[in-house]
Design brief:
The complex is a heterodimer.
Chain A (H helix, E strand, L loop, with lengths): L2 H30 L7 H19 L2 H25 L4 H19 L15 E2 L9 H5 L1 E2 L1 H19 L1 H9 L3 H6 L4 H27 L11 H11 L4 H20 L9 H5 L1 H13 L24
Antiparallel strand pairs in A: 1-2
Helix pairs in contact in A: 1-6, 1-9, 1-10, 1-11, 2-3, 2-4, 2-9, 2-10, 3-4, 3-9, 6-7, 10-11, 10-13, 11-13
Chain B lengths: L5 E10 L2 E11 L4 E5 L6 H8 L7 E6 L2 E3 L4 H6 L2 E4 L11 H8 L9 H14 L15 H14 L4 E5 L7 H16 L3 E6 L2 H7 L2 E6 L2 E7 L5 H9 L18 E11 L5 E11 L3 E5 L6 H9 L6 E6 L2 E2 L5 H6 L2 E4 L3 H5 L6 H5 L10 E2 L2 E2 L1 H14 L16 H13 L5 E5 L7 H16 L3 E5 L3 H7 L2 E6 L2 E7 L5 H8 L20
Parallel strand pairs in B: 3-8, 3-9, 6-7, 7-8, 13-20, 13-21, 16-19, 19-20
Antiparallel strand pairs in B: 1-2, 1-4, 4-5, 9-10, 11-12, 11-14, 14-15, 17-18, 21-22
Helix pairs in contact in B: 3-4, 3-5, 14-15
Classes of the chains: A mainly alpha, B alpha/beta.
């Protein structure tokens, strides 16, 4: 295999991984808090379209990202209100987010569908590091969104396992009643993490429309929100394992595209479907009865907290 | 006596139409062990949940050291030094003991310093003679150890008023005594200790003062040294409760109905839960299974009912091997099962009474024709059952989830003893029931045994086993420690067997892998 092909595979796998990792790590935090959001795909689309709209009309990436964050936070607030305050069924609320986000993004994105923004996150080569053979051009000649993810991964691990706040988060999804009787505000904490997860998911969408593919079309996330949901389970709610999962999915999807030319007789859809097949296989082997130990899912996941319930 | 540290005045709390507390007054003094005694549903836990800020009262006031205290949330209660060990522990199984304690300490440190916390916990635990391993994960601990962690948690957070909700319910008699010794130490240290209990002997022996609650109100408050069984019983139930005695003039039959030989099985975590269990039951015999909950009782009941496969050994009914038969075949062979969680395994809460009653027979010709249920027949039978078993209900078409626990259990029994089964497996059948319903359930079992049914009676209450059973087997860590004729043993011997005879009793089998955090 030539070095260029290798670099192309690794660097595309990294970008692919990063686009789903924002959503996956955000969702890991939300699910650790006990709230499952199956509407990631919808939020991702809203993030993608709002960022692209601002990019087209204002030609300002910083403003575009700020809009993405605000949109993500607003959707997160709605979802938290539904699931934490109103204690509605999280699966149903997630489906509502999905259809709402998909529909609204298609509607407000009509004007920019197929329009070239002439604005995207361009690769920035890191002096020195980018000169390392293979690793340099594939890992250190990337956009700022990728570099931020390089920071988020270790920070999220430290936060989750080494800080008091992270310990509280781990407890939140296991036994909220224990936190409540210790004087913590379960509702406020859940709101915060649901909103955080939603913001991260919206950023995932922006990664796609402003970096990975750099255009907008209706439903363009094409299931990456679902891959993020699957990644959370696959990673057993651990951000570091999610990184490996993301890279694995990324590698499978890019290799699928690259080997298409060697097998012209096989329909291209077969190769495009590989990441989703990998998702299903990964889920089968990481969940259920295949692992002969207790599931690592947070015990209180999807269970609304009600202090006075008996 | 010094002035009270806590005064609750005219506390009222309702849940919808149910009044759990009505005008309750309670004074708690520092340095005392104060027992709250009463039946299930008397309002003891509700009152304490009001004190800890978990429930917002509908009326009444709380005074702390003579000053009006506004306790709206658990945080307010923690700030006043009020802490509670709930019946269902508020621990996070995937965190270590130290992390659980730290979570409750109110510390604002950003990073965790586990060594320091662990050292402090060990010091605190030593002072009050509470053995805990600060670095262990909570899911690895036995129930007794988890309870000690809960107590350490409160002490570490600086609690001056400690509330324990039925602390001895999950302990062996020996462990319970050790726990009360610890509580006494804390009271001597100037702390106020409140113990919720429904065991009279226990509160008479260990408390300084006793407050009896009944129907959400305070029935009587007395010094423990002035308390007598009669006075307490009168306050708890209103009348002197008579417990039925097993009729001794009628020996069980000779035919062996059911037998297990060297049966082993695993629990849901694939750890050994039953290790070589062997026993037999004769016709008309009530065979008690004693032991602290979680020592294999659930698995034993499920193995007999056919819900859990065995990993070794043989099960025989009338001498015929039924080890590999399905649940349905066992039902047809005359095995009835009263599971411990009647609302999830025994009944379907959303369905009404007549549907629940025919769950095992809906397919028979009596109740269905060409796939259509015969509503009239169901209605008629349901009404007959409610009359025969004195089930109180709002209508046979009302979801059973809205009925009281006692009536649900009577309903479940009505279904399970219909057609006079040959073997009844009853797991904790009177747990959580009031005295009246518990009596009714015991009479049903007794009546069935007179009719010739063999009964496996699983219970934690030794007194109950001694009044009801002919023989008793003691489970500890999945092993049958011994089988005794009721007439030839006493509660202390059974208590010793429950601890596994070695006297430690609280050891946990080795961990099955890494912590649950990965």
């Amino acid at each position: 295999m030539s070095t260029t092909l290798l670099v192309s595979i690794i660097s595309t796998a990294v970008v692919y991984a990063v686009t789903v990792l924002y959503a996956a790590i955000g969702e890991i935090f939300a699910e650790r808090a006990g709230v499952m959001n199956l509407g990631l795909e919808g939020i991702m689309l809203m993030g993608a379209v709002s960022g692209y709209l601002v990019a087209v009309h204002r030609q300002n990436l910083a403003l575009a990202m700020l809009t993405v964050v605000i949109v993500g936070a607003a959707l997160g607030l709605v979802f938290a209100f539904l699931t934490v305050s109103l204690q509605s069924d999280q699966t149903v609320a997630g489906m509502a987010m999905l259809t709402f986000g998909t529909g609204l993004s298609g509607f407000i994105g009509k004007g920019v569908s197929g329009v070239n923004a002439n604005l995207a996150f361009n690769p920035i080569a890191i002096p020195g590091l980018s000169r390392i053979p293979v690793i340099g051009p594939s890992l250190f000649n990337q956009s700022i969104l990728v570099y931020v993810m390089y920071l988020i991964v270790p920070l999220s691990m430290i936060y989750l396992y080494k800080t008091r706040a992270g310990m509280i988060l781990r407890a939140l999804g296991e036994n909220p009643a224990a936190l409540d009787s210790a004087g913590y505000n379960v509702y406020a904490l859940r709101y915060a993490y649901v909103i955080f997860g939603s913001v991260m998911t919206a950023v995932s969408g922006a990664c796609i429309s402003l970096d990975y593919t750099n255009f907008w079309s209706d439903g363009m996330t094409s299931g990456k929100g679902w891959i993020a949901v699957a990644l959370v389970v696959f990673a057993a709610w651990n951000p570091l394992i999610a990184v490996f999962g993301g890279l694995l999915f990324g590698a499978i999807s890019i290799i699928g595209i690259d080997i298409q030319m060697y097998f012209p007789q096989v329909p291209s859809q077969f190769f495009s479907a590989l990441p989703y097949v990998a998702t299903i296989i990964a889920l089968i082997f990481t969940t259920g009865n295949f692992r002969k130990r207790r599931s690592s899912a947070p015990a209180a996941l999807t269970i609304p907290y009600d202090r006075e319930s008996r | 006596m010094s002035s009270p540290i806590i005064e609750m005045r005219q506390i009222t709390k309702t849940f919808g139409p149910v009044t759990a507390n009505s005008g309750v007054n309670l004074e708690i003094y520092p340095g005392e062990i104060h027992a709250l005694l009463g039946e299930n549903g008397a309002g003891k836990s509700t009152l304490m949940n009001v004190l800890t800020g978990t429930y917002a009262p509908d009326g009444g006031e709380i005074y702390y050291k003579g000053k009006r205290a506004d306790i709206r949330t658990p945080k307010d209660a923690v700030a006043l030094g009020i802490g509670m060990v709930h019946q269902h522990f508020r621990l996070i199984p995937t965190l270590t003991v130290a992390e659980n304690v730290f979570l409750n300490s109110g510390s604002k440190r950003f990073f965790l310093k586990k060594d320091k916390i662990e050292r402090e916990i060990n010091e605190c635990a030593k002072k009050f003679n509470l053995a805990v391993d600060a670095s262990a994960y909570v899911w690895q601990l036995s129930v007794g150890e988890q309870q000690r962690v809960e107590i350490v948690k409160l002490l570490y957070q600086g609690a001056e008023i400690l509330i324990l909700d039925e602390p001895s319910a999950v302990l062996t008699p020996q462990e319970a005594q050790h726990m009360f010794d610890t509580l006494r130490k804390m009271a001597d240290d100037g702390k106020a200790v409140i113990v919720i209990s429904h065991k009279m002997n226990e509160v008479m022996n260990n408390a300084d003062r006793i407050t009896v609650m009944k129907n959400g109100m305070v029935g009587d408050t007395m010094l423990a040294k002035d308390a007598t069984v009669n006075r307490l019983t009168e306050a708890v139930v209103g009348v002197t409760a008579g417990t039925q005695k097993r009729s001794l003039d009628r020996a069980p039959g000779k035919d062996i109905i059911f037998a297990m030989e060297a049966v082993s099985a695993q629990n849901d975590r694939n750890l050994p839960a039953l290790r070589g269990i062997s026993f037999y039951i004769r016709k008309g015999e009530i065979f008690g299974i004693a032991g602290v909950a979680g020592n294999g009782q659930r698995e034993l009941a499920e193995v007999i009912a056919g819900l859990r496969p065995v990993s070794g050994g043989q099960i025989r009914m009338h001498g015929k091997d039924i080890t590999k038969t399905s649940v349905k075949e066992r039902i047809n062979a005359g095995i009835s099962f009263i599971p411990e969680d009647r609302m999830t395994t025994g009944l379907i809460p959303e369905l009404d009474m007549k549907q629940n009653l025919i769950l095992k027979h809906f397919n028979t010709e009596k109740y269905s024709r060409r796939g259509v249920l015969l509503q009239e027949q169901m209605q008629k039978d349901a009404e007959a059952y409610t009359e025969a078993y004195e089930i109180k209900h709002a209508g046979v078409s009302y979801p059973v989830g809205l009925m009281s626990g006692g009536n649900q259990q009577k309903l479940l029994f009505a279904r399970e003893v219909a057609g006079d089964p040959e073997l009844i497996v009853a797991a904790y059948p009177v747990r959580g029931l009031d005295i009246g319903a518990a009596e009714a359930i015991r009479s049903i079992l007794m009546e069935q045994s007179w009719k010739g049914a063999a009964v496996v009676f699983i219970s934690e209450e030794l007194e109950e086993i001694f009044t009801l059973c002919d023989r008793v087997g003691v489970l500890c860590d999945g092993e049958l420690m011994g089988i005794r004729e009721i007439g030839q043993t006493d509660i202390m011997e059974i208590g010793r067997l429950m601890t596994g005879e070695t006297g430690t009793g609280s050891s946990e089998p080795a961990a099955d892998g890494k912590g649950g955090d990965s």
